[in-house]
Design a protein that fits this description.
The complex is a heterotrimer of chains A (277), B (340) and C (419). With 340 residues, chain B is mostly helical. Chain B has helices at 31-62, 87-90, 98-131, 136-148, 151-161, 167-172, 183-210, 214-222, 227-255, 259-264, 275-284, 288-313, 335-338. Chain B has a domain at 106-338: MetI-like (MetI-like fold, Orthogonal Bundle). In chain C, the strands form 3 sheets. A 5-stranded mixed beta sheet of chain C has the order 2-1-3-11-6. In chain C, strands 8-9-7-10 form a 4-stranded mixed beta sheet, sandwiched between helices. The chains are: A mainly alpha (277), B mainly alpha (340), C alpha/beta (419). At the A-B interface, helix 1, helix 3, helix 4, helix 5 and helix 6 of A face helix 1, helix 3, helix 4, helix 5 and helix 6 of B.
């Protein structure tokens, strides 16, 4: 079975187009719907008959506290990422560079915690936080989020640290650096790209979290963006708020899409670390 | 997280023995590095103890308690839940177990179908991307978009697409009421989930493809192997370790599915209620005992599946092969995992 | 157990039966008012009025989703987390028992509210074991909206009083060229609280009951079957379009206002919206309301409505009590009625000639409320309504026959009641 080169090429283009369409079409639909007027939201034309930003204005209306929700998402996902990254860097370094007993078991345990269904830890944490008066606080969302971001970060960083040549570190130690100095002066700078990638992946995971934020907050000013959207009562009074939901969805997604587009190479490398090199 | 976060990225660089198999002896750790390691690792372990281990133990305890009834004297619900032993677990075999089993089969069915479809579509995408040289950046960027969209948002997006007057019905020229009970609700969840995660699998498989030595294909072509045979005899076996880990993590994530059916179809919908949703719903209605019991069962289920993957299929999750050369992984060394 | 509960309630010893410490209503300052999405837009102006008069005790409006199940869930979450985010809750009338039994809401001082001037059945919905836990702020009853213009053109003089008449009228109307492609009848049949309401109305309108006054279920009866069968057969024959399985209130309103349906079961709130002449409604001036039809004569509505309750974990309770008094006052309901149709709780408002002139449905509604059958009043209302929704839905979609569905429902309802 041989295909002519021209046909082969054509088929390949068709395949690429299909993949791109598959990935982007639903997102495009969200964008288009968000730009329609409320009155023609049920239009199924591929372009809005008249572009309108009324949905965006409605979403950004102060009464919806949506800008606040975006800010909350940034705070929660940001702090979660930073904390997870700090703790994970230490642990991953030990995993990649030090020899100690039960290492494999510890690593397995840490990774196994990412298998936990969040529902199973939710209720006890909820009761605990109620007693501590933590409901409607950032820490009530950040701490449980560590349950999945921390294993994720340890996992990624361990792989990055392992890839780095041991010789450099040894050389530094021979030159009189302590292990700590070698870590700070040699490992960290070298691992910076890996840490950056891990940070992005961790951030996205934390940004997308829903169940914890849903359970731990009920004040509009403390809700994260995904929860705020799901609870959208609609800025316009009478309509089902599809238009504003789509507009809000676009607003929540656009920052991530931009980050992803800017750092796609890194992210792909991080997601597939090792194999792609 | 259920579906809110992406699985930790599988490490494909290495393929040593599986998660829990006996391993060779390591060089004895020095006391100094042991102490340093303990220092470096303890914060992580401490945090995970507080946010995972402790709640899990409490959940186990909770699952042995029932739901408080009304005190006939005051008319108020009692403050303390009664101890009922294993009743919450045995109840699933009784009359009230129908909802549990429905959720159990929904979970299993959704997991199986979504992961199977994602794998097929993901591999197909990877093969296309692997061949494409022009526009690769575009493809790679677009493939990350579904992955980056929060599941909650994608749930809303698909609910809009599947609206009775929505684009899905307009395009197909049918009038399916996707969000009502019935098989179409499952189909809607499957479509939405596959859309979001197939590209991710594609990405991982692509990474696996890219390290396959071109010479292997040359040799195969010399021997007269067609594209299909090349795929079946070379590509698939070589990407298998990468694929296995990707599939394992997708499976574990799919078993915990919550946000997508919860937002796309809604709570308490028989057609798509998963174990996570059932547990959440019980907790939300102040029946913490049954909620904890369902969560524990779900956890065991997830655990068993993970174990099966590691034991039977040899998925390597820990990826801790220190000596593992980056490129030598397709060599016969892989016998270790097949032997499991 | 519920039997004992009701017996105690019948003794009606006020205060005596409540062992829990008497809540003290102290603290003044900003509070929140929590309710489902306000479709009429009349809430905010009222709050603005209050806020102007009480600048240091401002009330913020927290709008929850339209779906009542989601509202209930979020209010329960607020209680479970002992959050002070919610102060005054607009509770669906059927939730009072559940919230009171769990002590999620405070028992209210009866003497602070003019309950005697309200319609009796409505006040009852705010009580639990003889104590007042929620003050009726609005009532609600289902009515039949119909396209008076089309009925007239088809030669029908008065709206249908029975289901059979409605079916026959629909057939006649659909023969008109301008009614081509229209659906006959829609209600709220999505699997949510609205389905419980519609199912209960069907059963009650056929002479059946869901629970007796003591809370014991009686759905495995021929009357209940006839009620459910009306829905099941209507779906099968296309009298109710299949789409209606996804309809909540707003979806039904959308198709009615678009002129796509002849009859709709709706609450009073739609009256003014459908009558709007700004182009948003195609049926302005072309519809009217009537009591719900039944099996042999006019049917019985479910008693809807919302009561104001005070979240137990809230602060600034003194302000809250004042606000509740203000928000449930006759004067305010009159003001609300001036802007949007509603179902007031005060007797006097149903007799007021100017109001009756503006809203011709008021006398119909009063009758409907006085004869309305409350939805089951049990403290595990969540289980009850979930079971009703499950079985009714199964029957309507044909995955179970109605007899089996009712049998299963009877069994399911006995479980929570047995406790």
């Amino acid at each position: 079975m041989t295909l002519s080169p021209a046909l082969r090429k054509w088929l390949l283009y068709a395949g690429v187009a299909a993949v791109v369409a598959y990935c982007l079409a639903p997102f495009y639909w969200m964008l288009v719907s968000s730009l329609r007027r409320t009155s023609d939201i049920f239009d199924n034309s591929p372009f809005p008959t008249r572009i309108s930003f009324e949905n965006y204005l409605a979403v950004l209306d102060p009464s919806q506290s949506f800008t606040r929700a975006l800010l909350n998402s940034v705070v929660v996902a940001g702090i979660t990422t930073v904390l997870a990254l700090i703790l994970a860097t230490f642990t991953a370094y030990a995993m990649a560079r030090l020899e100690f007993r039960l290492k494999r078991l510890v690593l397995t345990l840490i990774i196994a915690t990412s298998m936990f269904p969040v529902v199973s830890i939710m209720v006890p944490l909820l009761k605990m936080f109620v007693d501590m008066g933590w409901i409607n606080t950032y820490q009530a969302m950040i701490v449980p989020s560590m349950s999945f971001t921390l294993p994720l970060a340890v996992w990624n960083l361990t792989a990055f640290f392992r890839q780095m040549p041991r010789e450099l570190e040894h050389a530094a130690m021979v030159d009189g650096c302590t292990r700590g100095q070698a870590f700070r002066k040699v490992i960290i700078p070298l691992a910076a790209p890996g840490m950056f990638t891990t940070a992005i992946i961790t951030f996205i995971a934390a940004w997308n979290e829903f169940l914890i934020a849903l359970s731990m907050t009920n004040k509009a000013e403390m809700q994260t963006a995904p929860v705020a959207i799901s609870k959208f009562s609609g800025a316009t009074q009478f309509e089902t708020p599809f238009g504003s939901q789509m507009a809000a969805g676009v607003l929540v997604t656009i920052p991530l899409v931009i980050v992803v587009l800017l750092f796609q190479r890194r992210i792909v490398a991080g997601l597939t670390a090792g194999a792609a090199k | 997280m259920v579906t809110t976060h992406n699985p930790p990225a599988p490490r494909m660089a290495t393929a040593p023995p599986g998660l829990s198999r006996p391993r060779r002896r390591r060089p004895r750790a020095t006391a100094g590095s042991g102490r340093l390691a303990a220092l470096l690792i303890s914060p992580t372990l401490l945090v995970l103890t507080v946010v995972v281990l402790y709640p899990t133990i409490v959940a186990l305890k909770d699952s042995l308690f029932g739901t408080a009834g009304i005190d006939p004297k005051t008319g108020f619900v009692r403050d303390t839940d009664p101890f009922v032993g294993a009743e919450n677990y045995t109840a699933i075999f009784g009359d009230a177990g129908a909802r549990f089993w429905n959720a159990f089969w929904n979970t299993t069915f959704l997991t199986f179908t979504t992961v199977a479809l994602e794998t097929v579509i993901g591999v197909a995408m990877a093969l296309i991307m692997h061949r494409a040289f022009q526009g690769r950046a575009l493809v790679r960027a677009s493939i990350l978009v579904p992955w980056a969209i929060p599941t909650a948002v994608s749930g809303l997006l698909w609910r809009w697409i599947f609206n009775s007057d929505g684009i899905a019905n307009a395009l197909t020229g049918r009038h399916v009421l996707w969000t009502t009970e019935g098989f179409h609700a499952k189909a809607a969840v499957i479509i939405a989930d596959v859309w979001k995660t197939a590209p991710f699998i594609g990405l991982l498989v692509l990474a696996g493809l890219q390290v396959i030595n071109k010479e292997v294909y040359e040799a195969a072509r010399m021997d007269g192997a067609g594209p299909l045979r090349q795929f079946w005899n070379i590509t698939l076996p070589l990407v298998k370790p990468a694929l296995l880990v990707a599939v394992l993590f997708r499976t574990l994530d799919a078993l915990r599915m919550f946000d997508l059916p919860y937002i796309l179809i809604g709570a308490q919908k028989t057609s798509v209620e998963t174990l996570s949703m059932l547990a959440q719903d019980q907790a939300a209605n102040v029946r913490f005992g049954p909620a904890a019991a369902y969560a524990v069962i779900l956890f065991l289920y997830v655990f068993l599946i993970a174990l099966a993957f590691v034991r039977l299929l040899g998925a390597n999750v820990v990826g801790d092969d220190e000596a593992g050369p980056k490129r030598g992984r397709w060599l016969p060394r892989r016998r270790t995992e097949v032997a499991a | 157990m519920l039997a004992g509960l009701a017996a105690l309630a019948a003794c009606g010893a006020p205060g005596g039966t409540v062992a829990a410490g008497k809540p003290s209503f102290e603290g003044r300052g900003p509070i929140t008012y929590v309710a489902g999405k306000d479709a009429t837009g009349s809430v905010q102006p009222v709050l603005d009025r209050w806020n102007k008069l009480h600048p240091t005790e401002k009330v913020t409006f927290i709008q929850l989703p339209t779906d009542p199940d989601a509202q209930r869930q979020q209010m329960i979450q607020n209680a479970q987390t002992k959050s002070d985010a919610y102060t005054v809750l607009s509770l669906d009338a059927v939730w009072t028992s559940e919230f009171a039994a769990h002590r999620w809401i405070d028992r209210l001082p009866q003497d602070r509210f003019p309950l005697a001037r309200m319609l009796g059945p409505i006040v009852e919905t705010g009580k639990y074991r003889g104590g007042l836990y929620a003050v009726p702020a609005s009532s609600d009853g289902g009515m039949l909206y119909y396209r008076s213009d089309l009925l007239k053109r088809a030669g029908i003089e008065r709206p249908p009083a029975t289901w059979a008449e409605m079916t026959a009228d629909c057939a006649k109307v659909r023969k008109l060229p301008e009614a081509k492609g229209m659906s006959c009848y829609v209600g709220q049949f999505q699997k949510y609280e609205g389905l419980t309401v519609n199912f209960a109305e069907a059963v009650n309108s056929a002479g059946g009951v869901i629970t007796d006054p003591v809370g014991a279920p009686h759905v495995d009866t021929p009357q209940a079957k006839r009620g459910l069968d009306f829905l099941v057969h209507s779906f099968r024959s296309g009298i109710i379009p299949k789409d209606a399985l996804t309809y909540q209130e707003e979806d039904g309103r959308r198709v009615f206002q678009a002129g796509k349906v002849i009859f709709e079961r709706q609450w009073p709130y739609m009256y003014a919206l459908a009558a709007k002449k700004d182009g948003s409604s195609k049926v302005a001036g072309r519809f009217a309301v009537a009591p719900l039809p039944g099996l042999k004569g006019p049917g019985a509505s479910s008693l809807g409505g919302h009561n104001l309750a005070l979240s137990a974990s809230a602060g600034n309770k003194a302000t809250a009590i004042d606000f509740m008094k203000f928000f449930s006052s006759e004067q305010l309901q009159r003001f609300t009625l001036a802007h949007a149709p509603a179902a007031p709780t005060y007797k006097a408002l149903y007799r007021d000639p100017t109001l009756v002139k503006k809203y011709p449905y008021l006398p119909t509604l009063k009758k409907s409320i006085l004869h309305a059958v409350p939805r089951p009043r049990v403290y595990q209302y969540g289980d009850v309504t979930a079971a009703i929704q499950r079985e009714a839905y199964a029957a309507m979609t044909g995955s179970k026959n109605s007899e089996q569905a009712l049998k299963d429902l009877q069994k399911a309802l006995q479980l929570p009641a047995a406790e």
